[in-house]
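Task: complex structure prediction.
Instruction: return structure tokens for all chains below.
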Amino acid sequence: MKAVYAAGVGMTRFGRRDEVSLVDMMADVGLQAIDDAGLGEQPVDMVYVGNMASGLFNHQVSVASALVDRLNLMPAAADRVENGPASGGSAIKNGFLAVASGYADVVLVVGGEKMREVIGPKATDVVACMTHMEAEYVYGVTLPAMAGMFTRLYMEKYGVTREHLSMVAVKNHKNGTLNPYAHIQMEISLFGIYGHPQSHVTNPVVADPIHLYDCCPVSDGAAAVLLVSEEMAKKLDAKPVLVAGVGQATDTHTLQERAEPTDLKAVRIASEKAFDLAGIKPKDIDVAELHDAFTILEIAESEHAGFFKKGEGAKALVEGKTQIGGSLPINPSGGLKARGHPVGATGVAQAVELVWQLRGEAGDRQVKKAKNGFSLNFGGFGNNVVSLVLRRV
Amino acid sequence: MDMELEAMLRPPETPMAPYPPKMITLATGAKMIVRQVDRSAVPTLLKAVRPTLDIPRDYYDVVGARLYAELLGWYRHRVRDEFCLVGQVDGYLAGIVNSRLFSTKTCISLHTLSLERGLRIGAHLFAAKMEYPLEYLDIEEVLITAESPIGFRRWMIEYGLEPRDGQHELGGADYFALTKDIYLKNKDRLVAGERPVPPDLLEEAEKEIKIRAADKIREKIEGVKEETQ
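Output:
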């Protein structure tokens, strides 16, 4: 397997982007990544686009073909990769495999989604389409509902409390204020969303025990990574970051079919695969971007990825280990909770944040001396997960 | 001014019990003071409303223009029995709501304008706008319509309003009623606020309604920031 490098990255501000189309956002970040890598006029061999539901959100399909044309990258091969909210991670995995196999030298990976073209309840419904149609969706399940049930189980089994969940939200909102690309750039207080006697009005229940500030926003946005071979990396005037590990694993489509619903088996296996390929252990990771679409997921994923023992993710949070400046900063970007979650873009945005962190370009949210970064992109409700390990070289 | 003619054009005013100010703790931990203002505040409020006239997003332009006219009409004594509540954080205006009494039993909800987003300020002020007539003015129901999808989701879906036939005073689409029963059933879930307001915070709010610069108001509403790369 050949070495694969992230030679350039690009990203739009996440949020509500009425003023720009999906393809224009993706073209913007694609150009940023190409320029960042200093690729110049050298050809791009392949383009992978992570996108979950442009057909439903924007009434537009074949977005990879549209992007290649918009960027004038013909005759580059172009595919849209769909893996729910892990579409971005899957797109990177496919780009990685194309370069690692020797099939391609330069692969542009773009993740993009424009969800705010539809109203909130419609966006929730579109996302819910990834659940099991006959066993879940027809009964009205939504992702917040699923997260609510998962959270309740996790609370009962591992003693996670609503205060812990709120602490994740407070931490990631604070990190988001340090990230100019974040959808939400507003600090919130534990007292305001949890401690105050009327916080149930300010922070209302969405799907008990999940409250408003436990949920990520619905966002528009795009991000891009230019993956290149080692030979190409040497030719470019860039600061390449090694894609040291990639892992992917699946689990049952429905949550209730899992022997232990609180066991995120795909998270564990995908993470182990990424660490094995990178030849490192979880303890070697300096910064992590986890898929906190709901606050419980940051805690649960931090355990299943191997950073903390099962049931001790909340303890690590309380001890400040996951803050910027802690022993393992998690989601310095603000995570999905504050940076936002344009579903198809998220996996790529996580990688972009890691590249910035490993290059030392993350500004006020920089994790000091970060050498190894880890990301986890959570598809479905943990039924198709992609993990990455990136390394400063 | 021809006072005889003015007396004919100026609507009568029904005495209203004052709205007791309250304090709401926002998600940020900041304290928002919700209080009633009288006509004298209108020129100041209009400075904050004016920048919204250029914001089509979420129908801010429509809501802003109509609110501007309603406040101006009230200021110039051309709207009957209007009242206005404001929300202030650190003295700065965070939102405005207004309504008017149609009769001794019915209130007409007019507009809700939030100048800060992401903190449910509109929802809190809308709740206050319902609280005042239903709890302090012996009104039985408030008639409501929505012009923006945000308003629709905040008022109609969250409260489970009662549909009504006919037209709301604002025209537009279907309209609904928030009866005292529906309000009281939802009150614990949707209406926040502590009384009395600490004197120092109330004094700060009453001393001056601070208005942000127009471009700051637009930025807070639209969330637009400079591209960074």
